[in-house]
Structures are given as C-alpha cells and as structure tokens.
C-alpha cells in the first residue's frame, strides 16, 4: 500500500484474525482498507449488506486492495443475535438473486454436504478426533449425511460469529467479512447462528421472522451444520495456536444437543 503512504495516508492495522484489514486516515477522511477482500464486494455494497465500497485497486503483485466507507458503530454482542433485524438481513442475503448470480459468474459451484464431510474428515487432526465430544459430533455428521440433500441454494456467509455483525451509530446493520462465503444450503448459516446464540425456546419466533418453519427434518439440517461449523472452528483456532479459543469452541460443541 505504498501508493497511499506516498499521498500522506496513515495506515494502521484494524485487527482481525487474518491481519489483512487496515484503517487508512488522511486529514478528516477515513477508509477501511482490506487486502484480497471478497471479489463480489461491489454487489454486497450495492445490496446494502456491507458498508459502501469506495474504490478497488489491483497492485503490481496481483493483490487487490479495496476501500470501504469507515463506519462508526459496534459489533453485535452474543445476546443481540436474537433480534429481528439479524433474521431479516440473513433472509435478504439468502434470497438475493444478484449475490447468487455473481457467485456463479465467478465460477463458484454449490458446496454439497458430502464435500463438507470429506473436508472435516481430512482436516481434523488425529488428536482432536480422539476427543469424545468431537467423536460424537463427527458421528452425527456421518450418520445423517443421507438426510442432507439441499432443498435450495443460496449465497451463505459461512461465519455467523457475532463479531461479523456491525451496527452503526446511524442504526444500520451490516454483515462483514465475506471471505468464507459459499453457495450452499441456507441452513449452513442458520444452524450455527441458532445453536450458538439463540435460546431454543425462541427458535420458532426467530425462524418465523426469517421465513422458515421448524420441522424434524429441518432441525436435523440445522444441527448438522452447527456441528460442522463448530468442529471447523475448533480446528481453525488450534492451527493458529490459540488454544483458549479452541477450547471455547469445544465447550460450545458439547452444548449442542
């Protein structure tokens, strides 16, 4: 980002797991800068799902730098995830034809549950596989794979962590960090969100606002994806050497019933 330094911009890390996000400031102007952000950021911006995209620049080394409007606000707290606005925004995302069309134009193919199961099998290390809680979750994935044929395809964000939801000082809700987005079953997002954040007694209300009716089959799908996403989170943080975070997600896994 030398070209920005040359123009007098001050660049500071903006945090995050990847270390690819920055705050750029010059006089009274601030921008959120990210290296190699999601290639369909422009559509997300046009749909009002992420803060406004200001510009995109490809560097000589092939990296793509994007600049978005810097927003003042806060990340949602875990208890905020049960609000109507989260359900409505997620519904908007899953029903968005422009998002789905763009993903397909980028060459993305639907991700089937069988591929996810294979990914879990090959990426969970042997130490984790020996853990009884992980064994139970992995057995559930294998046992119920035949019931997981997708009913519909949608663009799924892929990481429902509450830190990815932003509420601005102007009361605008955004879902950020789209690097893990896939074309998949909407339950890929809904399952983890419900199991991680919403009391089970309130699921029916949340799903009604989203636009889905709970059935035994739907519950199996939601639980399957909640198990999968939590397993992958455990391995992800273990790979980073963040043992405390890995143990946290192991506790979450144990609470999924």
UniProtKB/TrEMBL annotation:
The protein's name: Phosphotransferase family protein
UniProt-listed InterPro entries: Aminoglycoside_PTrfase, CcrZ_PhaseVar_Mediator, Kinase-like_dom_sf
Chain ranges of the Aminoglycoside phosphotransferase domain: 40-211
Pfam families: APH
Signal peptide start-end: none
SUPFAM superfamilies, alphabetized: Protein kinase-like (PK-like)
